[in-house]
Each structure stands twice: as structure tokens, then as C-alpha cells.
């Protein structure tokens, strides 16, 4: 919608307690975009207009006014929920109609980091925003560490005529300006978490520098590192994390790819590949595993053919993600609205909300899932996934079973690690129990389904 009521809508959900299961909420980019109230926030035009100034034929943004945003973040904070701001710091959009039409810095009295507007045909005495200046703070390439700018544009399908001006963090004016802006967002709005958009478009050291600056220090951050799953290997994710001094986690794009294959193509998918899959399998403390996001599913749009996302049995992916290590994320559209993209429906979506499926998995995670993960499957590996979270002093641990067979109930007899004789109960269906003898139990699930086993004596309704 373009009517500016989104902030108020989410604030109502927080006030009603609907968001109580979540510790963080990732909110959209707050800045005024070049397309005004139609902007979803990624065409940043004015860093310091959060819906307070009459620009681009609107005062409020697509999501609401600056006042609405501040009230939302305050409500989330009082509910014990961290607000995560979506930071777009690689590029800006707009211009003055010249060639190249790139720079939109509108001067308001309260703006300090970017005060100089670039006007076509005029000389900038300070050298900023001047297309012909050798030390210009924008560049045309969309990558870092390369001298072949046009080659990088070709790789990322973003040519020199693209509307977005690539911000040059090497320029001290821009670097300090962005850091000052981040500190202002943190203090003025109250954000305490940070999501970096299009991280590979800027130098990784800047992520570290930004997250060591002012109020951002010691706060949570997560990076969008590549927007397509197969653009980077898990090893490259690990390297990128190291280059940012481990100051931000990363969305686990490679795991998402595996989960999409599992749900969409069960006949050919090998469940054994989920053992230590993705970034969460090697660096769980720096991974944000997820099932879907606005970057992986879009029912309509120019590139929608490659962004139809998971098209069936998405609950299997949520079982894996919500009981895994790392810090998992739930997609709003899956939770509250319709989970599947559908180009043939009126609104582009189909299916019913997965909230009633996701909530019990979140509860199981909070009560039981802790400690390291051990892969336990001993047969039917292509269709069956069994893993145990070892537990810690406050969480006993649990067994997750996912059966991806299209037609068969499958079982395995596994060593559970619980040495005493006991009974295991499925927390999602307490009528189902299995016995443990000398640590061994036979566990399983029906086709295209899952179970979460815990020791019956520690089960919490």
C-alpha cells in the first residue's frame, strides 16, 4: 500500500502482544526515496527525510511519518523487541536531469553530513558531488577491489546508465557522513539493530568501521551478502565475515538454496546434504538462517521468474530453520499473510498463513533447542533427516526428524545421547511417544512431515 499506515499497523501488532515470540523486528529502509510514497526504500534520495519533509510530492514515506516511526520503535523497545533498521549505504538515486543524472542532496537546515547540493553546470568549490573531479565521492562501478569498473557492472547486470550512484566509502566525506547518519538514526529513532543492504557493493572494512562507531558499537548487525544464492560459496561467506572483523552476521543464502530444493523438488533432493549445510553448518554464531525474504520471493516484477521462492511444504523448511543453530528469521508474509507466490492469482499470492505452524516451532526452540547439532540419520538418508541439539544446562535439547519422502513413513533407530531409559514425546503431537533403552530409540515421521522429540519428563505444555 502507498497510504503510509504500515508503521501504525506494526505498532498495533506489538501493542497487542502478537509479536511477543520475537526478539527483533527488521523494519524497511526509513528514508525518503526517489519515487516518493511509491518507494519501498532502496532508491535513497534523502538520508535525513524519514517522512518529515515535503519532498517528491509527499511528506510521509510509503510506511508513514517520522513521528509514526519513532512511536513504533519506542513501542517495540518497551515490548523488549529490538528494532533493526535496513541501511542502504551502497547507492543513491535521483539527480538533476543532467548526464549522468545521479546526485540528490537537498539542503535542509538540520542536515550536517551531506549539506552541499550539486547543481548541473556549476562548479563545486569543495569538490564534492562533482562528476569531473578526480576525488569524487561517487563512482559508477558496483563492486570493490577492481580497477575494471565496466567489467564489474557487466557481472552484476548494472550498467553505467543505471540510476543509482555508487557511494564511495573511501572518500572521507562520504564515510564520515554515513557514520554520522547511522548514529543519528540510532539516537533520533532508537534503532538498536542494523541490516546492511547489498553488502558486497562496498568495502568490507567499512562495515567494521561503521559498527565500531558511536551507538552502533556492540549492537547486532546482519549483512545481505549476495542477493542470489549461487553467487558465493560458503567459504566466501566465511572470508567476507572475517574481512568485516566479524562485526555483522550474514543471511544464510546457501542454506536457503538447499531448503528451496528440498521443498520444491523432493524426488531428487538428498536430505543428507542438510547435514552441516550452509553458513549455519560451519559458523552458526554468525549465521541468520531463513526460509524466505523479500529478496527470494516476489510474485510480480521484472525479475519475478527467478524469485518465485519455495512453492510447496514451506513448513518443512521452517522446522529445520527454527530448530537449527544461528539466529533464525521468520518472513512476515509467511507468518501473517499468504506464503506462496502465485502469478495467476489476483494479488500474486496463494495459501494460508503459517502462523499456527510457526508458533509451536518457535516455542519448541525457546524451551528445548540449544547446544551443538549432531546428524544422526543411519538409513534412508536421501529422504530422512534426523539431528539432535545437545542441550545446555537450561535447555535439555531435542531431536528433529524431517521426512521428505513423497509417499512413505520412515523410521530410524538412532543413538539419542540420553543414556537413561526414558520416553520421548513429540512436542507437536503429544499423543506420539517412543521409548529409549540404553540411549537408543526408533524415531520417525510420516511422508513430507516432521517431529520434534524431547524427553517426556521435561516436556513443558
- SSE class: alpha/beta
The description of the largest β-sheet is: 6 strands, parallel
Q: Percent of residues in beta strands?
A: 15-25%
State the shape: elongated
What kind of oligomer do you see? single chain
* Rounded Rg: 24 Å
Number of helices: 10
The CA-CA distance between the termini, in Å, is 39 Å
Strand order of the largest sheet: 1-4-8-9-10-11
- What's the number of extended β-strand segments? 21
Give the proportion of residues in helices. 10-25%
Global mean pLDDT: 85
Concise structural overview:
The protein is α/β, with parallel strands linked by helices. 23% of the residues lie in helices and 18% in strands.
Notes on the protein architecture:
The chain has 461 residues and is α/β, with parallel strands linked by helices. Helices cover 23% and strands 18% of the residues. It is built from ten helices and 21 strands. It has a six-stranded parallel β-sheet with strand order 1-4-8-9-10-11. A six-stranded antiparallel β-sheet has the order 14-15-16-21-18-19. Helix 1 packs parallel to helix 2 (66-78) and helix 8 packs parallel to helix 10 (355-367). The protein is elongated and about 70 Å long.
